[in-house]
Design a protein that fits this description.
4% strand, 4 strands, two-stranded antiparallel ribbon, mainly alpha
Length: 498
Amino acid sequence: MSATALPVRPAGTVRSSSPALVLAAILTTQLMLVLDTTIVNVALPDVQQALGFTPTGLSWVLNAYTLAFGGLLLLGARAGDLLGRRRVLLAGITLFTLASFVGGLAAHPGTLLAARAAQGIGAALAAPSALALLMGRFPEGRERARALGYFSAVSIGGSAIGLIAGGMLTQWASWRWVMFVNVPIGIALVLLARAVLTETPRHTGRFDLAGAATSTVGMTALVYGFVSAAESGWTDPRTLASFLVGGLLLSAFILVELRASSPITPLRLFADRTRSTALGARLLLMAAMTGLFFFLTQFLQDVLAYSPLATGFAFLPITVMLLVFSQVSARAMGRVGIKPLMVVGLSFTTVALLLLSRLTADSTYPQILVALLLFGLGNGLAFVPLTAAGLAGVDPADAGAASGLVNAAQQIGGALGLAVLVSLAQSAARAAEPLGTTAAEIAQHAFVVGAQRAFLVGAGLIAVTVVLLVTLVRTPRRAPQASPTGVVDEREPVLVLD
């Protein structure tokens, strides 16, 4: 059934608000959702001790959120298109806030995992609507590029900020505050969003529940397969069964989308070569970045003996570089073009990961600092044009779905990437020759060998991404931007894809 706009009652529409307040509401939403993917990392040892998680079960504290978030993003985007994006965003923030409160009170592992999954569902509702509202509020050109610069900085910098906040809350208060901290923020955000965001028209249509189910369960099965491979080996029956189920369900997802009257993922969005390549590059970049945070966090604490707080602040250089160079990228994008920024940025990221693959138990923080600075510089340059390329030329009717795909690539890339890198690291660690005189020294050496393998594979993923960008992304040409009065302004070029 085709989507048909329904009239929105005047009473349900918010008056036009300051662009700064609108941007503040959208960026705060994105920050809260992205931050929650990493804020629990530093607190995991305390969570395990308090609730009695097994090592395998503990990994699902991260995966329950990430998989629900990434797997249901496309359904959340469709809900925004049909029900109104402001309405769906508010519902998502409310659910996220309530789930955070329940998770902070959790006394059993199952309660915390359920709360984390509910947080992911709330995030899946809110995130695509937030990005679609940003696109609708800020017109294409310099104004949108600047807004996307802030959005991209928050999207990628929030992960690093989460590590710092997690370290502070864990060391100064309790692991429970990595959940509770979302409650006052969520309440304030609901009030701000209700006041400044404008509702979008509702449409008639259907929810593609079959597509949502096959994609979410299929991705979960794949991640479980990689986790199982890390523990039990690649030939274990559970591992093979998980990969089989995941492959079948994802194949079924494609068939469902081809036949659905209102698919959550219009496959026509992948017809644009530049957009598809940008989405794939985003997925691989997040795979490498999630692995960096996961392994480097443990390296700092278990090898260099950093406290949770010191570990969090050790990642501060990434945040600073991201904030600075995402804005540099946003300003340069119209003049330099998206392709050079993506290629140069991801080349710096590749070098950073190669440097980290050389870490040993005798390495010092200054060696790590150089890699962190290069990583932040490269990602800062690349993320804004990656976001722009993923959304450029999208029909307004597909804005929600395209926004969902951008966010889904980020979340699914992180979940799948972490599972793959952990599996490969465990294989390398098991094959490492014992080094040391005590069990602790032998275990530490095995971890370092595994981390080296993970960083090296991450560098390979980004290097492949650079090649794909050089080969497949069309070179944009610059075109003059029309002002609101219709007069062409030659000083402000905008991107047009040939």
